[in-house]
Amino acid sequence: MNLLKPISAVFAFAVAVAAFGADQPSVRVEPSSLQGPRQLQQQTAKAAVQDYLEAWAVLSKAMSQNRPGLLDQGFIGDAQDKLAATIKQQQIAGVHTVYRDKSHDVKILFYSPDGLSIELADAVQYDVQLYDQDKAIGTEQVQARYIVVLTPTEVRWRVRIFQAQSE
Amino acid sequence: MKAGLPLLVAGALVMSAASAQSGNLNVPATIQAGAAFSIQCGGSGKATLYIVGPSQMIKRDVQLGEAVSFPAGSVGNAGHYVVFLSSAAGNESGALDVLPAEKPADLTFIAKPSRLPVSLQGAITGAAYVFDSYRNLITKPQSVSFELSNPSSPTQTHTVQTRNGAAWTQMDSSKHEGKDQFIARIGAVTSTRIVNQVPGDPCSLKMNAKSEGGKIQLQTDPVRDCSGNAVPDGTIVTFTESYNDTRSTVDVPLKRGVATIAMPAHRGATISVASGVVLGNQIRWDQ
Question: The domain that contains A151 carries what CATH number?
Fold first, then answer.
């Protein structure tokens, strides 16, 4: 199968992403066993994963500042709607949350034949801190597997589905 | 309170036997999206309960020592939630996983292309994502049926198991032009797209010639693709006349399925016809 070539290319990308700075979460991109007839080029995979990781930074900023307008930079569709609704709930309740992603283990699962979506799984570790009226309520370490679907927009891939599963 | 009881019972049915406990806080480990559930908060006095996730946040003032009930529909978005209980005695936490509902309620279906020539193998693709009624992606495998049909061709059906909520298929375009219905179906949920199938390139070309008013009147037979569909009007047919060292070429669009042109009559001229990559017959004019 000619899928083997892009798969190894994606794996090579893992090293590049893992070389981020110390403040960044550690990132590993696993070799994929892609379903679908469409070849995933290394450049496409790299851009999608990079944009996904940046979406976490967008999420963190939007949740901690309770600014749903920021979500537009990384999210679209259902994911954006749900996250924006959460921020509104936080605003009403007078709370905010700080999400700090510590590590990602990303595997690309599906590249749709039309090229309009990439699905990936991410075994992610992050901390959630909850503040009520700026008083720290608690911090919890979370380990979860996220299923993520990205779609291409004008200049970047944006997250359309962002859903944690129990491991 | 009476109305809430059946909801609580329903919630109890879908709760996992396991639950996340932390001191006085007893949280079900998993629930299904939209199901009723309850959280036990031991102790006495007042406290604040928070259910925190990226997709939803709930804050509730609670009385310790009582079960806090959440009616059906309280938490509809699948995901991982952290539960915090804050009281004068201190803070506690637990975790709650909300799973997608099992019953599919919606499909996102993308079919490509929306227009293509007939008789191409594997040229139509469809991809579908399966959702529950809360727009959670259902990641448990489900059977999605893809059907491509038109009145004049046998229906193509492929049944595909979803993997991680996604399924895809490839179909052949049919032999006859027309608007095909491309349907993705899961249970009673369907999503339909129209794929417009147009005739392919001309399969063969044949022209006839006759003398008319001192010119050669040329006309093709009706131009069809290899499946017998009439090639659309506007398709260009090229007539070329070669005489001594002179060569004249005229592009003529099909009108009502045929191309017609009058060219100068020269004894010994050779006239050929072509459309795209298809070469038709050749006529030598000896009159």
Answer: 3.10.450.50
Among all residues of chain B, which has the CA nearest to that of A109?
B164
Q: Where are the domains of chain B?
A: 4-99, 106-198, 207-285
Written out in words, the top-level CATH class of the domain with range B207-285 is mainly beta
Top-tier CATH class for B4-99: mainly beta
- Kindly give the pairing relationship between strand B30-32 and strand B90-99: parallel
- Chain A residue closest in CA terms to B80: A164
Instruction: Residue window 21-60, chain A: list those with CB within 8 Å of chain B.
Output: 35-37, 59
Question: For the domain bounded by B106-198, which CATH number is listed?
Answer: 2.60.40.10
> What residues contact B228, with CB distance under 8 A and at least 6 apart?
none
Residue A27 sits in which domain range?
A: 4-165
Mode of pairing for the β-strands spanning B66-70 and B37-41: antiparallel
Contact A113 B136 (CB under 8 A): no
- Specify the pTM: 0.81
A90, A137, A166: residue with CB nearest B91 = A137
Residue pair A10/A32 in contact (Cβ under 8 Å)? The answer is: yes
Interface residue A97 vs chain B (CB under 8 A): yes
Residue-wise pLDDT for A67-115, tens only, equals 999 999 999 999 999 999 999 999 999 999 999 999 999 999 999 998 9
